[in-house]
Each structure stands twice: as C-alpha cells, then as structure tokens.
Amino acid sequence: MKILVTAGPTREYLDPVRFLSNRSSGKMGYAIAGEAQRRGHTVHLISGPVSLVAPAHVACSHICSARDMLDAVMAHLAWADVLVMCAAVADWRPRRVASQKLKKTDMQAELALERTADILEAVKCKRRSNQLIIGFAAETHDILKYAKKKLVHKGLDLIVANDISRKDAGFGVDTNAVTLLDKKGGQWELPLQSKNNAARSILDWVTRYFDQTSQLR
Ligand code: PMT
Known about the structure:
CATH architecture: 3-Layer(aba) Sandwich
Helix content: 25-40%
Radius of gyration: 18 Å
Largest sheet: 8 strands, mixed
Number of helices: 5
Number of domains: 1
Strand order of the largest sheet: 5-4-1-6-9-10-12-13
Order of helices and strands: EEEHEEHEEEHEHEEEEEH
Bound molecules: ligand PMT
CATH topology: Rossmann fold
Oligomer: single chain
CATH superfamily: CoaB-like
CATH class: Alpha Beta
C-alpha cells in the first residue's frame, strides 16, 4: 500500500522570529511511518518542524505552516491508499505577518488571528471512496464524545482518540493511550503502551480493514 502520514506541529509566524505552535514532537507520526515502512508499504511522511530524523527509506516532505501542510497533503492525496493525519495542525494563525522583526513598542497586547484551513475537511471533498482516511483527536476531557464528533464531521474511516490529560500520553512523551473508533461503531481501547506499539495496533487495524473489504469484492 501507499501510505501518507503527517506528523509534528505547524508553526504560524507573526514575524521572522516569533510563531504560534504546540508541543507535538512528531514521535507518534514518525512511529507510524517507520512501522508502515517495515511492513513493506511505500510511505511518504509530511513533517512539521521536529528534531527527529525520518525513518530509513521513507520519503519526507518538510513543511512549516498549516498552509504548507495543506498544500503537501493535497499534492500527495491522489497517490495514497491511506492517509494518517497525526500532525497537530494549528487552528489559528496571526492575521498579519510582518516581514521584519517587530519591535516590542510596535506590538499590541492582543494578537489578531484568523482560522487556518481544516485539512481533513479539504480531504473529504477530494478523496476517493476506496481511500482510507484516518484522523486523530487530541482531547483532555469527554474524549470519546469529541472524537466521535470529529469522526463524523471530518468524514473519517477511523479516528484515534488520544487522551492528552495524562502525563504519560500524547504530546512529547514516548508512550500513548489511545482508543480506535471506526465509522461503523467499532471501538478498541488500547492500554498505555509505547508509541511504536500503538503504531502497530493502528496498522493492524488498517490491514484488517483492507482484508475485509477485499473479501467483500
Ligand atoms: O507528536 P507527538 O509528541 O508524538 O504527539 C502525538 C500527538 C498528540 C500530536 C498525536 O497523537 C495527536 O493526537 N495528533 C492530533 C493532534 C490534533 O491536532 O488533534 P485535533 O483534535 O486538534 O485535530 C483533529 C484532527 O484534525 C487531526 O487528525 C488533525 O491532524 C486534523 N486537523 C486539525 C487542524 C486542521 N487545521 N486541519 C486538520 O486536518
């Protein structure tokens, strides 16, 4: 299979030295890309700025902003059998970007923001029905309720609900606690485990999905 994986944060600059971003390290997305490559799939990774090295034999596009990530995902979407949208994409960016460093005396206490494009919403309009689209939901509370909403609104086949209220799960750490929810109502709660093992479970689900759909044909 051809698997497109996004990972890491985006950066939304307000001048050449300042930006809005988040704590995503890229570890979860890189683990999925590495595991997919070890299983013999062809993998393309689209990565925000992180300090990780792309897994061997994985093609990687390095991007910075949410707009760059949208462009890179749309450029590779037709190629992919599976998209795994693990990146923590900024929902807001500064309305104005200064070309020169802002002086603190020129800055306002309040920053004017505008929404970034929702990449999965854009994917929903362009995807083929035989492509598998997987999203993540990083939540601190009512995790399954919000994840189910995103599964439906973003037109996903599977969502990985990520409990980020725990210190040992989610952003930055080596372990994760996730529940897989599919569009048919299936639900699989995985125990706290390494991000590599969580990646294996997600890819096991992908394999089972394609095995079942090929049996139906
Ligand atoms: O990188 P690590 O440190 O290993 O951390 C892993 C992780 C916590 C970042 C990862 O497991 C995770 O949960 N990723 C999704 C983070 C997130 O942005 O979730 P969200 O609930 O805000 O977004 C829901 C989905 O919409 C995600 O698939 C996201 O990629 C996508 N999205 C979000 C915003 C946007 N503008 N466009 C999008 O497509």
